[in-house]
Amino acid sequence: MILGAIADDFTGGTDLAGMLHVHGARTVLVFGDGGVPAGYDAAVVCLKSRAAAAAEAARMSLDALARLREHEPRQIYFKYCSTFDSTPKGNIGPVTDALMNELSEPFTLAIPALPVNGRTQYMGHLFVNGVPLSESPMRQHPLNPMTDSNLVRWLGRQTPSKVGLLRLPVVVGDLAAEARKLRTEGVEIALADVVTDGDLDALAEAFAEMPLLTGGSGMGMALPAVWKRRGWMAERAGEAEPRDEGAGLILAGSCSAATLAQLERLGGAQASIHAGALLEDPEAETGRVLKEARRQIREQGYGVIRSSATAEERETTGLDARLVAEELETMFGVIAATLADGIARLIVAGGETAGAVTAALGVEAAEVVRIIDPGVPAIRPVGGPVMTMVLKSGNFGSENFFRKALDNT
């Protein structure tokens, strides 16, 4: 195995796996504590550690590391969101520290940027489609509101390790030499500026043999080319995977602005979950939504169940956001398991929702089969239910994403 990756949520893992697949790496996804299959260029273990307590996130990540190391990967990669979703207490810093300690590595890089999806870093500041992170919709995230665009400062709050910056002028120069200089200055984690795909290519060439890297999915675009040039991975002929026919189901647990716009663009009948009713009587609300989903599948060939609401709508409810999120995850898992036998295509928006759904379906591993949008692949379970799945990060996908996913799974 060339790369063993640990992702802090499920859609983030599929994002990285999709990037690796489209650039020629045979890639498998492993969900939760599932076993890691052999015979792949890359394996991505998807965890639900982003919103866990820091100590628990570190424990889960070290467990995933142990499973990956059984396959002797050349490099370990800790994957988190390109918008650096975290709180001032973690979990990016604590997990990075735990992995560095376990691997006895004194230095690593943090490379969150993903230019193809509008995430860039310049002089340590992260931008989303040209807007500073703290002014983007991420400032209203219900679990991890991002209120500081300076990632050097943000990460520095999460870890006792010394955090430094690999500046853009250096990224286009002698990267390895600058990394050595930062290490002599005591830097243990260096955030790398990236504004173009070319910057990712330069980082991949310089650090493909570093035992531990961390970042977003962007490096999944750049690393496979280096592997091919160095003879680690053979060219793979692309094979068209057959598309599934049959009913579809969309489960939208994300409340991101992108998902809301995508649902609006899709149109058609959509069943909205009422948070207050769910907290008051989960069984009744689940039954109501299931009935509506079955009606939609009969009439339009697919069902849409959504929990999404605008930030203003969420604030007016006065409900505890974390409690609602927990109940929604449970409900989405029940719905997926209940309807699984009657659907061939399952599309899920939102990392926490994806984690609940894959667990409820008993999916332990899946192989990437095609790409729907940048960072969003279609996958097929390995030894699990016979269906094609798409697990989408809330912020990802084009405006007509859901239609594209229905038409290409």
Description of the molecule:
The protein is of the alpha/beta class and 409 residues long. The protein folds into 2 domains: 3-229, Rossmann fold, CATH 3.40.50; 248-407, 3-Layer(aba) Sandwich (Molybdenum Cofactor Biosythetic Enzyme, Chain A). Helices cover 40% and strands 20% of the residues. It is built from 15 helices and 18 strands. It has helices at residues 10-22, 54-69, 92-103, 151-156, 168-171, 175-184, 197-207, 219-229, 257-266, 275-280, 282-300, 311-317, 321-339, 351-361, 401-407, and strands at residues 3-7, 27-31, 42-46, 75-79, 108-111, 119-122, 125-128, 131-132, 163-166, 189-192, 212-215, 248-252, 271-272, 302-306, 345-349, 365-373, 376-381, 388-392. The strands form 2 sheets. Strands 9-10-5-11-4-1-3-2-16-17-18-15-12-14-13 form a 15-stranded mixed sheet, with helices on both faces. The protein has a 3-stranded antiparallel sheet with strand order 6-7-8, with no helix packed on it. A hairpin with a 2-residue loop joins strand 7 and strand 8. The protein is globular and about 65 Å long. The model has no long low-confidence stretch (mean pLDDT 91).
